[in-house]
What does this fold into?
Amino acid sequence: MSLILFVLHDPEKLQQVLAAWESCGIPGASVLYNTGLGAIRQHEGLRDDIPLIPSLSDFFSHPEHHGRTIFSIVPDDAIVPALVRATEEVVGDLNEPNNGILAVLPISQVYGLRKR
It folds into this structure.
């Protein structure tokens, strides 16, 4: 059993990545917004200039660059190579810059995970 963490740099590809993971047998995944150090250093990440009661135009004046972090628990480690290939089919070679970062972490115990 493993925890898969994938930092997706291009949020436009989120739905395709999730579909690819489902086709590999991933039972479910969670998605979080993320902002990397590079975006924060370029002042493109976290916004601190939005007013307390913003208008819609306040959000469009400075577009934010958020990636997505997808994580899932894979019950069978035999799925992992297919999952990596499917992810690369969507985003490109993970060894190339700006395609994302995928990590596979071993899990010894899980609580609260429902069997489907």
